[in-house]
Specification:
The chain is built from 2 helices and 10 strands. By secondary structure, it is of the alpha+beta class.
């Protein structure tokens, strides 16, 4: 079965969203290798961050440490671990990555206020995929 152009476009979108740099698919009689231009994306990101963050603060990005499916809430609960505007401490659980029957926590690398949860629940994430954006607290702002 030939690989359709719409399939290739969809795979490229998935790679871009998940932060995966390359994928290679081989079947008898055909192969496909997609490599994302990460240099262009990295070069553009400081400008994008500056445009999205007019205050000049440098947001902190919580990233996945493993590959799997992202969960914003524990499977037995409806309430997500964090919500935009919520203050959190370093090490707070932001979400989970489901790997088979295991759940690995995604933790906040620093204290701050959750600016946005970037990853969508159920989305496939890879190592280093951005999960949440955290605005660091000013030194004089205690966490309540």
């Amino acid at each position: 079965m030939p690989i359709e152009m719409t399939d290739i476009e969809r795979l490229a979108q998935i790679l871009e969203r998940s932060g995966v740099e390359a994928i290679e698919i081989e079947e008898p009689g055909q192969s496909l290798k997609l490599v994302m231009d990460t240099a262009a994306r990295r070069a553009a990101s400081p400008r994008l961050a500056a445009a999205a963050d007019p205050t000049g603060d440098n947001p902190i990005i919580a990233k996945a440490d493993v590959a799997g499916h992202f969960l914003a809430a524990h499977p037995w609960r409806d309430k997500p671990f964090v919500a935009p505007g919520q203050r959190i401490e370093a090490g707070a659980i932001i979400g989970l990555v489901k790997i088979g029957l295991l759940y690995a926590p995604v933790v906040a690398p620093a204290a701050g206020t959750v600016d946005a949860v970037i990853a969508e629940t159920g989305a496939m994430v890879g190592y280093g995929t951005p999960i949440a954006r955290i605005r660091p607290l000013a030194e004089s702002s205690p966490i309540n």
